[in-house]
Design brief:
The relative contact order is 0.10. The radius of gyration is 22 Å and the shape is globular. α3 crosses α4 and α4 packs antiparallel against α5. The chain has two domains: 89 residues, no CATH class; 195 residues, no CATH class. The strands form two sheets. A six-stranded antiparallel beta sheet has the order 5-6-7-8-9-10. It has a four-stranded mixed beta sheet with strand order 2-3-1-4. 40% of the residues lie in helices and 18% in strands. The protein binds heme C (HEC). The site of heme C has 26 residues, from β6, β7, β8, β9 and α8.
Length: 303
């Protein structure tokens, strides 16, 4: 009898250490994996930090305290009747994420830590900002992702530690920089830097200022199509008065369909980097100006 009482008491204690976390939509589980994985660097369901019971999700506060004491404190303070609302969860993540991920305070430090070698750039007017976006990534990282396309199950996947920057330009001036870094758990970290190069919680207001990382993940993990990527290689649907600059270079319909890069977003990236790159290689091959390693890459893809 005593043993049973003790077990019940233990269960009661441990359930007091559980908070239910709620999020909207079908992608709730994936989003929770990203949010909480930011503190554990391992799958939060496997570490016992998150549990799913009857389609509901619970955080074990004792486990969370070990990985993310600040987040545990915020969630505990924001919970009402043992439940954390979606807005409270996002606020608590936004408040503690940068610190947990140890993201550099300065863009210069970011650039030193994640060096983008053999940088290539793509310019586009997308949905995130009214300014022109200059997206920079490493050509070697992109080439590897393309080389590994079949090995990765016909997916464009970047190596862990790959960094991508998207600078927002007013004329020649960089007004802010958004960045992503590939993590080992398959997600990417998001960081936003202001015009002075300081880490900042939100982007400049476009329609709205975007909170990092929660609103970034919203678009990047979702399945909504954006212009100009969605219509590529056709002209994007233009809103009246809209300026659309997009991936320059050859518009190769076969390659666009082959990768379907924007709609498949195999690595939660939304730009058309493999598409633009391989389209360009094919055009160079036609012109007879391609080197042997690039020819090998096209042959490897069967294109
Ligand atoms: C409205 C949806 C949306 C939101 C919100 C959003 N992005 Fe993106 N992001 C895009 C699209 C679309 C692209 C492809 C390039 C373009 O059209 O701007 C992109 C591209 C990027 C890239 C280049 C790599 C890639 O995925 O192609 C980075 C870096 C990036 N975003 C960072 C961020 C950060 C940081 C935030 C949050 C502050 C954010 N994004 C929020 C839609 C979004």
């Amino acid at each position: 009898m005593r043993v049973v009482a003790l077990i019940l008491l233990m269960a009661a204690c441990s359930s007091a250490e559980q908070l239910e976390v709620t999020l909207e939509g079908e992608s709730a589980q994936r989003m929770l994996r990203f949010y909480f994985g930011s503190y554990t660097s391992e799958d939060p369901f496997e570490t016992g930090l998150l549990n799913e019971r009857g389609g509901r999700f619970y955080v074990d506060l004792a486990v969370l305290r070990a990985y993310g004491p600040e987040l545990a404190q915020e969630l505990n303070a924001m919970a009402s009747g043992g439940v954390v609302s979606p807005d409270s969860l996002r606020t608590a993540v936004q408040m503690t994420y940068y610190h947990a991920r140890n993201l550099p305070e300065r863009l210069s430090e970011f650039s030193n830590r994640w060096v983008i070698d053999n940088a290539i750039t793509f310019e586009v007017h997308g949905p995130v900002t009214k300014y022109l976006r200059r997206i920079t990534l490493s050509e070697s990282a992109l080439q590897s992702a393309i080389w590994n396309y079949y090995e990765n199950g016909e997916k464009i996947r970047y190596a862990v530690g790959t960094a991508i920057k998207a600078e927002h330009l007013r004329g020649a001036r960089v007004v802010e920089t958004t960045t992503m870094v590939r993590r080992s758990d398959g997600f990417w970290d998001f960081a936003t830097y202001d015009s002075t190069g300081a880490l900042t919680s939100h982007t400049l207001p476009n329609d709205r200022a975007l909170a990092t990382p929660t609103q970034c993940a919203g678009c990047h993990f979702g399945n909504k199509g954006f212009e100009p990527e969605q219509s590529w290689p056709l002209e994007p649907a233009n809103a009246p008065g809209d300026v659309r600059k997009w991936y320059t270079g050859p518009r190769d319909l076969e390659i666009a369909e082959f990768f379907s890069e924007h709609s498949r977003r195999s690595d939660t990236l939304l730009g058309l980097y493999a598409t633009a790159y391989v389209s360009n290689l094919r055009a160079q091959r036609t012109a007879g100006s391609l080197d042997s390693s690039a020819i090998a890459l096209l042959n490897h893809l069967g294109l």
